[in-house]
Design brief:
With about 300 residues, the protein is an alpha+beta fold. The chain has 8 helices and 11 strands. Helix 4 packs antiparallel against helix 8.
Amino acid sequence: MEILKAIALEKIIDFPDIHIQTIRNYLKLNKQYPKNIKSRKYRRRFEAKYVGELIQGDVSTHQWIPGLSEKFHLILFIDDKSRYILYAKFVTSDNLENHITALKEMFLTFGLPMSIYYDNDSKYSYIRHGGVHFDQRTENPELVIPKALEEVGVNLINSKPFQPQGKGKVERKFLTFQGQIPHYMIFENAKNIDDANAVLEKYVEKHNNTYSRAINSTPEKVFKENNDVFEDLNKKDIESIENAFTKRAIRKVNKVNEISYKNKCFLIPKYKNCSLSNYEVEVRENPNKWTKIFYKDNILTKYDIGDIV
């Protein structure tokens, strides 16, 4: 209306200097004025009620060190309630192993959250694979994370395809990081990914202790002073996390009660005093640590890395 009034005053001789509302009321009486215009409504952004109720996660690929041609991937997990960064690390590959490492480290540090909110990245979504039930696709390595989260009792929520607004907090955080972190890299004279992670660690600590208008406090303070719903871990929970977040493969037991996995033979013990010959077992591997054999989610045996010939 201000623009219309300014044009009218300039173009029309002796146009009266009337109030904006008068012009608006006049236009409403005119048939050319659109009658179905509705006032714009602003949605209140969702916010979790408790710390640990919802964790947002994502990956950002960016040239984090100015002048360095190599781009790193930043894996980031942030608490929805407090905006506290639970995990942040630069990696050279956005692969399954690095995401498994990230989730395990976060859970072992803070406990199990109620839910994780991620996009439709194939590593986090069985919907991308036709919605087939996990038990029918155990061999598929890309279903490890959804199956593992289900096993440890963490709800997985996937944002709708092509609608990143649902992960607004983590998306906005990436924009801030992309604008600020490269300057810290220059100041700290970072040359490689190890230097970059050292700078990132300092930056995350600074972020967690910086006042945010969105929460009227610092993420650190909100995270520590509010009620949280992270599930405290006991020894059994830790073992469950270690068993769940692993590479997996299905093998059929031969007539002499052995299976072959990565060109190595594994002897399969009896299950409830019965031979598992001609039955399928599941191999779970924690690289450079151990290999475990499961039957119907029951552990049969464990081979430490030094025991495998």
